[in-house]
Every structure is written in structure tokens, then in C-alpha cells.
Amino acid sequence: MDNRHNTDFDIINSAFDIIKSDFDIITGFMDALNSEDDCHNTDNCHNTDFDIEKAKQAKLDEINYVSAKTALERAVAAFGLANVRPYHGEQAQYIIIWGKYNIELELANAKVVEWVENLNDILALIAAKADKDDVIDRLKSLNITVNDICPMIRVEGGTLKCEAERKKYSITVSGFEIGKYQVTQRLYEEVMGHNPAYFKGCNHPVEQVSWYDAIVFCNKLSLLMGRTRCYKLSDGTYPEDAASVPTDNDTLWDNAVCELTADGYRLPTENEWEFAARGGSSSQGYKYAGSNDIDEVAWYNGNSGFVSHEVNTKQANELGIYDMSGNVWEWCWDWYGDNRSNSKDYAGESSGDCRVFRGGSWNYFANLCSVSGRGDYDPGIGNYGVGFRVVRSGQQERQPQLPCGSFRAAGRHIGDGLSHQIAPHARPQQQTEDDNKTEKGI
């Protein structure tokens, strides 16, 4: 073992000695309380105005909380992270983001006391540069909640023959990975520090995010995960370094570039999205993502109650991907265009009016939730029916850079290419029969 490891162990052992002393204090205090309890059970010491059991539990809760908080603070240095933050959500009060993992801790909870008691073993694994999965397995053995921060599904490259509105076309893509779920509010808040969604819920898809917001998120997630960022604005700066995200059309942002050779997170191209939604090389030719019965796989205006729903509550498609039909529309990289190329790894036209989104949502009819349904919207505006999911490029050689092109007059197309105004911040409304258009598909 080298000197650095010895130093690590010295620090860890010193920290554990302090933590152990905390428990010695607790033990001594409990012994004292038990003595008081013995006295309380005698006639000479009986006091009806003092509830020793409640006092004992209150003090124990206080000590547990302080000890757990102290242990958590000491563990931060061992994990080598600044990414330990308060999270007052449905499950955890503190979250450690460690690589691709979320480690959830609840203070003043018995399992965190167990975490403190076993901290020596865990920190020793970290100091010894043990495989990260070994540390995660140890945490799980203590019933500490550990989740993959952004689970991905591998999509093997290939070609699909498709048909929509009596038009035949093919999609050819290289291999890539795509998010198993739409980006949830919980993940978005962890990365961005706020939650813009109209329909609140940790495991609901985030919405009311613009295309600009989405590329900022992708870059920040890439940094968090130690990956190379994909997006730069046209002046060579990173979008997340901007003073603010535009809320209206912005030439600098519309001419951003995407480095597809980077290993970071990004939005899917429209062809990647459709290839994955149709099931890739495992496609069964379903109308919707995973079934010909929309109620099996999608939340749409026929079953949603006109609200979004938690991800992973409907059946997955052939690749194990959820909600690619319905729940919320999903932003793609491409400018909206009518002339989609059959070339490999096609990533849309060089310029356009609005950015593409796919998949339909909770407030649209079934036909627009099909694997060929299309829509688009202004890139600087968010909407309560529009979210996104992320992808990562595979190892195959890819075109190194894709210019976004310049922005032209705004237009909005849903399925049939006709103009459909969507009020981004208004109260959700039911889609009308006039909006029930046949999807263009291509």
C-alpha cells in the first residue's frame, strides 16, 4: 500500500474514532436514562408530571440526528464530492451524487445510524480505491437507497423500414444509448437546482422546459457525470455559462453546435428518437411505442385525466424504454422539416423555424402519440406538455459537428403541419376535435 493510501486510512480511522466517540456518548446517555428509568419504577422516585419515555426518545432522536449529520459531513470528503445536497423530497433528506449513482440518506432514521456504525468499512473501501460497484453493494446491504441517476438503454445501430401516411422511408442510425425514462423532475432539480414543472411530482416528467433549457441540462449532467459536454453556442461558449437562458428566440443559441463525438449527454436526433421508439432491431411494427393498444403504453387525453403521470407506470416498448408514446412530448435536436433524409445518422435540416418534438402527450389524441406523430415549437419557450429524454453517442465514428443553422420566422406544427398555438404558461386544456389531425409521419 502506498503512502497516499496510508494517509487515507489514517484520516479515515481518525474520523471513525470521533464517530465512535459519538456513539459512546449515546451509550452513556442511554445508560443514564435507564438508571433514571429504574428509579422511575420505584415508589420513592415516582413523578407523574414527567414522562421519562418521551424524554428518552426525544433526546435519542436529537443525538441520532446530530451524529448522522456529522457522519454525513465527514463522509463527503471521503467520497471526494461537493455533490451532497439537502433534498426534502418524498424519500431522502440528503443525496450524495457519486458518479452515476444517487445515494439517499434520511437523517434521524435508524438506517442512517447503521450507516454511521458501518462507515469505517465503507470509507476503507473508498480509500483502497475499491471498485465503485463494491462500495455501492455495501451501501445497499445496509438498506441505503442507491439509484442509477439516469439509467440508459443500449440501442444497437441498424436500419428500419418505416411507413406513415402511405409514405415509405427508412431510418439508419449508428448505435447509441437512450434514457430509459423521460427526464424526471427529481433528476432535473438535482442537476439544475430548480423545478419548473406545472404538474409537481418527483417521478413525473419535467415539463415547461424550453429546448434551450434542455441543452443546458444536458451539458450540466455531462459535467456531473464526468463526461465531455456536447453543446456550445455559436460564439464558442457553453450554454450553461451564460448569464441567463433566453426565453425568446436568440440567434446565438439557435446557431449552437453539437459535438456528436463527445461522450456526454444530449438530445436525440429525430431519427434516433423514432428508431428507439419503434423498438430498433427488435421492432414488432407497433403503431405506438410497444403496442397497438395505446392504453397499454401511453398516457394521452383518453386516459390521463388531463394531467401528467409518473414515468414507468405503463408498459415499456420492445427495448425496455418507457413513455415514448404519450405523457409529455420530447424535444429532439432537429429543426422541423418536411424533407427528412434517409442518409445514415441524419440530424435534420441546417436551419428552420422551430425544433422538433415527438411522442405526443397527456392532452393529445391517440394518433399523435404514435411512433410517427410529430410536432414542433419555438426553442425558447417551455410548455406544460413538453419534456425530453437524453441520449449518449456510441463508439462508432460519427459526424463530428452539426450546425444548428439560423432561425427564421416562427411556426408551430403538430402532426399535420398546420399551425397550432400552444399557450406555454396557461392552464392545461383538453385537445379539441379540430386538433385531431392525422399525423404527417414524415
List keywords for this structure.
442 residues; alpha+beta; paralog of FGE (formylglycine-generating enzyme); 2 domains; four-stranded antiparallel beta sheet; globular; disordered N terminus
Structural class determined from secondary elements: alpha+beta
CATH class of the largest domain: Alpha Beta
Beta-strand share of residues:
15-25%
The named CATH superfamily of the largest domain: paralog of FGE (formylglycine-generating enzyme)
Please provide a written account of the structure.
- The chain has 442 residues and is an alpha+beta fold.
- The chain folds into two domains: 3-148, no CATH class; 152-435, Alpha-Beta Complex (paralog of FGE (formylglycine-generating enzyme)), CATH 3.90.1580.10.
- 30% of the residues lie in helices and 16% in strands.
- It has helices spanning 3-40, 52-79, 110-117, 119-127, 132-141, 185-192, 211-224, 251-254, 270-277, 294-297; strands spanning 84-86, 94-98, 101-105, 145-148, 152-155, 158-164, 167-173, 176-179, 231-232, 257-259, 265-266, 329-335, 355-358, 374-377, 386-387, 391-393, 401-403.
- Helix 2 packs across helix 3.
- The model is unreliable at 1-16, 25-30, 32-48, 396-430 and 432-442 (pLDDT under 50).
